[in-house]
Fold these 4 entries.
Entry 1:
Amino acid sequence: MFSLFTKVPSISATDLKKKLTSAITLIDVRTPSEYQMGHIAKAKNVPLDQIHMYNKKVQTIYVICQSGMRSAQAARILKKNGYDVINVQGGMNQWSGPIKGGK
């Protein structure tokens, strides 16, 4: 049975940086304005309030936000919808790699 306390696997921002060398699906669940201020180049913006509508057929989804709280929420929703999800702990606050501004 699914609950809000379902554990979702997580990785560090450092581990995410290593994963970015291959083709992965990375979703940034921050607001569009936060995303435009700076995001990881491979990240697609799907704000938390729209995550329940996400329906792409992908293997594993990595989810990031600013601190790791909203992405953990989003990860639980995606997991409930049948996705294999990994949360990025600490979010963009822990990210030390390059960021891209704009859309």
Entry 2:
Amino acid sequence: MKREFTSEAPDRLWVADIEYIPTGEGTLYLAAVVDAFSRRVVGWAMEAPLRTELVLKALNMAIGQRQPREVIHHSDHGSQYTAVAFGKRCREAGIRPSMGSVGDCHDNALCESFSATLECELLDRQRFETRDEGRREVFAFIEGWYNPHRRHSALGYETPTGYERRYHREGSVAEETGEPVGVGSVEYRGHG
């Protein structure tokens, strides 16, 4: 990707990473798949052991919800993303895997940005006694706050779901009129 985390439409570029969530019972792992266009978390999964199945569940959720035609899935070189089973699932779904350079967090900066937001707005403010408590709170953060309500300066201060909704609404009008898709001075380019 050469650190070009922009997209002109949904489901063209997904970025993915794994976040470590501390609990009183030990670490809970979150695998997240973020659409570069809207910054929406389109797939996620949480497990106690860190195995390939974790990223496969997040990928399968994203595929099930979005049903992409031609999407690039970008991640780091973690063993879960380089596993044969992960590569096989990408091929089956028609997804092109992409990986950043080894040991360079800037090569997945957009997903790292989601992780930083999760840490700052949830994990640094709350401690979880159990993994189940962590699962509930992370679920509420993603589906109850981040996707539908958290505004992003890179999206013209719209929310991920609002940004996509507007794109689809105005995209259908643009198809009928031939007008370019955009809202005011904000174009839908998935600003990184």
Entry 3:
Amino acid sequence: MNQRVHFAASKTEDAQAALALMRERYGETPIDEAEVIVALGGDGFMLQTLHRHHARALPVYGMKLGSVGFLMNQYRPDELADRVARAVPTMLRPLVMDVQTESGSSVTALAFNEVSLLRQTKQAAHVRVSLNGATKLEELVCDGILVSTPAGSTAYNLSAHGPILPLGTNVLAMTPISPFRPRRWRGAILPATTEVKFEILDPYKRPVSATADSYEVRDIVEVTVRESCERTVSLLFDPEHNLEDRILNEQFEI
């Protein structure tokens, strides 16, 4: 291969078999010397790969060997060098989640899909919502609320009846999860430059957790969410499997 490729695979039987085949057929470059990562698995494994290697700023080319493959290309073991060379890059910018907990600790994490808040007990969460320092909802009573990137808008956000966001629109989706009050509020589409702050009202009686993709922080009192200005990741897609087209087509699925 012309490119120096490092392979990564989920632990499923199919992905591990594909990993062995790829290494035998194409060889492999150590991650410290690689130019591109080829990820074998589903969307969950793609997120793990992005989190594990985002500091290296390497483009990632995924092939679907899992149950969900929205961020993956079709798995075909042949002509890998040509496919990677022809792939179209899509730049993703993650969210930064800054959390303050009841114990006084501070936690920062990245999210490529979404930042979500969820109640920890049977008690509904009571959340104050502010945008760029201005309070927009004094008290949202709900099971939770999330902020999604365009790439993540077809994941948890869509399951919560949030909007699908085309890539390149520089917007984020804010979507409540089972909102009780205000009854008619169903979320908002925000400029990507918006800084969102969630304040937990009565956190001791109504504890809430915050999750950046799969990284959870429990017993929170305040969360701020903003788009990262420093970090980006590049996903590579076959020309016939463009992520923007997939997001567009998803809006017409019934």
Entry 4:
Amino acid sequence: MNYTDVHDKLTDYRRQIAAIREKMRDTLADVEPQVVGDYAFTNLDGTVHLSDFFGEHDDLIVIHNMGATCSYCTLWADGYNGIHRHVVTRAGFMVTSPDHPSVQKKLAESRGWKFPMVSHAGSSFAKDMGYVSGKGGWLPGVSVFRRENEAIVRVSDTGFSPGDDFCSLWHFFDLLPGGAGERPDAQKKTSCCSDH
């Protein structure tokens, strides 16, 4: 196919994707929220709770991160760092993983991450939210919570997978001849997202 034909075909596919996303937003608007507890986590200061991270907002975005051993989770988190200051104008934001807070701090410092991280180790949070696999491994994704009077409810969530919409790098690579090809150095390690 010549360049113009391919361009037109891809433009049509992108319009179809945009239409599906609109349907997804409409479907989400009708969801009955899931009431959840005010889960306890740990950070370097001690015990913190889910409610502590809403800040001045009624909404909170929580990332389910598999920890320092997952190269894909690290790549996703590099992306959150770039948009964090924009996200927090609209909602609270935090990342949770099973790692000890000292491990989280070391990784965050090595990557220049600015967002808050907490450990869910010892809690049922990841399992209750559906981010533990049938084999007992951690799963990556995101849950969105809302404060409604005295209650905390989950209003949406989705899992992550390599090449998804939550990491823009893959979409830039898709525009290159040959697509993503070899992943960047950070991705040549074990791809733990598909192992659990």
